[in-house]
Amino acid sequence: MQPVLFTNGNLFLPHSASTADSIFVEDGIIRAIGSAADLRLQLADRKYRTVDWDGAFVLPGLVDAHMHLGMHGLKLGMLDFTEATSKEEMLAMLRERVAVTQPGEWIMGLNWNEHNFPDRQIPSMQELDDMTTEHPVYLTRTCFHAYLGNSEAFRRAGVTSDTPDPESGAFGRDADGRLNGRIYENASIPFAMVQPEPDPASLKLAMLEACRDALRLGLTAAHTEDLRLLGSVEAMQRIHRELREEGLRFRTHQLMFHGYLDEMKELGLKPGSGNDWNRIGAVKLFADGAVGGRTALLKDPYHDAPHTRGLAMHTLEELREIVGRARHLGFPVAFHAIGDGAAALMTDVLELYPLSRDSKLPDRFIHAQIVHPDTVKRMSKLNLAVDLQPRFVASDFPWVLERVGPDRTSYLYAWKKWLRSGLPCSGGSDAPIEPLSPLLGIHAAMTRRKPDERHDGYMPEEKLSLTEAIELFTIGGAKAAGESGQRGTIAIGKYADFTVVDRCLHDAMDPDELLKTKIRMTIVNGEIGYTQ
Predict the structure, then answer these.
(1) Which of 170, 435, 401 is nearest to 295 (CA)?
(2) Phi, then psi, of 13 in degrees rounded to 5
C-alpha cells in the first residue's frame, strides 16, 4: 500500500491548539501530523500519493460500539415499519407485500412501534388473518423483544391456546385465554425454529451490505454480536476473512454470545485475539428484555402495569454459571441489562466474579437505561465500560415515563451521570433496532429529542456537549475494546481511520446542523472505503 499524504483538512483535535491540516499515513498508521508545507518538506525524498480533503472536517474514525451487523444487513431487504405512523399504515404495507409474495412463503417485517401511532393500536391476529392465511406472517417490534404473528405462523410453530408459556417468555392472550398474535421474549423460539434459515451466501451478502451501509454513514468499525444469526464461530470468522480478502475495508469487534462458549474453548479463543480487522471481544449475555414490551426487569412494578416487574432471562444461579464459565476461559462479559432490577442482579454476579484490573478488555454494561444510583456506585468500583445508545431517548420518550412512573425519572437514560461516574462510556445504535447513522446518535445525545421535535429535550440536564457525544463514538468505543492506544483520536501511531464530513462541527453549533451534515469520505487503515 503506497503511503498517502492527506491534506487541506480541518482536523478534530479538541484538546490541542494545533493548526495542523495534514496527515501522513504509511502502512495504515498515522506517521506524522502537521501543515501541508511542513510535511512536504519532511517527505521531500519519499514517494507518496496525495489526497486533498478540500477543507472538509476530519474526525477520528467513528465507531458504533453496539449493533448487529448481520441483522442490519438482512433488514435492508425486509419490510421495515420504522416510518409507519399508524396501524392502518402497517396493514397497508403488509397488503402490498402479500400481493407480491408467493403463497406459502414467510412475510417478515420489523421495527413496528405502536408508541408512534395515535391510538397505540397494533394489528390483531384476526386482522393479519383477514389479510392472508396463505402466508405465515411474523413481525418484530422495534425492541426485538416482542413479536406479532398470524394464525398460519402459529400453526407452523406448533403453538396453540393450550401451549404453556415458556420460561422467560409469554404468548399474548385475550380475556378468554385465546391467542391474540403477540409473542414475548423466549416464546419466539418455536417461530424462529420453523422459519427458513438464510443460506451461507445470503448471510455473507447481508454482512457485506451492512458493512457497506456503515461505511456510507461514516462508520469505520462496529462492535457487533452476530453469532446467533451466523450459527458458529467458524462461520463468523470465515465470512469476515473472505470479505477482507475480497477488498472490504471495515473493522469489527465481536461480542461472543454465551451459547458458543464450548466452541470458543475448542478453538482456543482468547479475549482480544484475531487481527486488526476482526477481533474477539467479551462474552455476551442477556439479563432481561426491553421496556417497550414490559420485559425489562425492574426492582419495583411497572407504573402502568403494577402486576409485573418484567422478566429475568436467567436465574441468579444461571448467571453465576455463565459468568463463571467465561471467567474460566479468561473472558470479560458484556451483559444486556435495561431495568434497574437486572442491573443490580448483574452487579451482584460481577462482584462475585470480579474482573482483574489488569484485564485488557473490561466487562461491558449494555444499554444502562434505568439504573439506581446505588447500583452506579457499586459499578464504579468494577473494571467495567458502559455502552450507551443515545437514540433510545428519541425513540422511548415520552411513553417510557408512563412505564416507569415519577419515582424513577431522575435516573432514566442518564448519560451525563454515567460520564461523571468515571467509567468509560461508548456510543452505539443497537441497529437494526435504531438507525445506524452515528450523526443521529450524536444529535440525540446533544438534544435528547427526536429530530423533528422542538423543545428543550427530555431531562435536559443529561444533554451532552458535541465533544462529549463525539467522544462516545470515538475514544469511548476504543476504550471498550481495549484499543485506546490504537484508535479513537487523531494521533501519531494510531490507525489511519477517519470520518470526513462537509462542515465544521463544534460545541457552539446548532445541533440540528448535524441533520444536514453529509459524509464526504470514510477512510479505514489509510484507504478510502467510501466517498461521496
Answers:
(1) 170
(2) -130, 75
Indicate the DSSP class of residue 199.
P
Is residue 459 within 8 Å of residue 418, measured between CB atoms?
A: no
| C-alpha cell at position 24 | 501522513
**Exposure string over 488-506, b if 16+ CB within 10 A, otherwise e:** bbbeeebbbbbbbbebebe
Cα–Cα distance for residue pair 59/442, rounded to 1 Å: 13
C-alpha span between 410 and 376 (Å, rounded)? 13
Q: What is the DSSP letter of 461?
A: G
Digit-by-digit pLDDT tens for the chain (532 residues) are 899 999 999 999 877 767 899 999 999 999 999 999 999 999 999 999 999 999 999 999 999 999 999 999 988 888 989 889 999 999 999 999 999 999 999 999 988 999 889 988 999 999 999 999 999 999 999 888 899 999 999 999 999 999 999 988 999 999 888 999 999 998 999 999 999 888 999 999 999 999 999 999 999 999 999 999 999 999 999 999 999 999 999 999 999 999 999 999 999 999 999 999 999 999 999 999 999 889 999 999 999 999 999 999 999 999 999 999 999 999 999 999 999 999 999 999 999 999 998 999 999 999 999 999 999 999 999 999 999 999 999 999 999 999 999 999 999 999 999 999 999 999 999 999 899 999 999 999 999 999 989 999 999 999 999 999 999 999 999 999 999 999 999 999 999 999 999 999 999 999 999 999 999 999 999 999 999 8
Determine whether 218 is exposed, middle or buried from the number of CB atoms within 10 Å of its CB (0-12, 13-18, 19+): buried
Cβ-defined contacts of 502-506 (< 8 Å, 24+)? 502/56, 502/57, 503/57, 504/10, 504/57, 505/12, 505/57, 505/59, 505/466, 505/470, 506/466
- Number of Cβ within a 10 Å radius of residue 86: 15
Indicate the pTM of the whole model. 0.87
The Cα–Cα gap between 18 and 327 comes to 44
**Measured distance CA(499)–CA(511) in Å, rounded:** 18
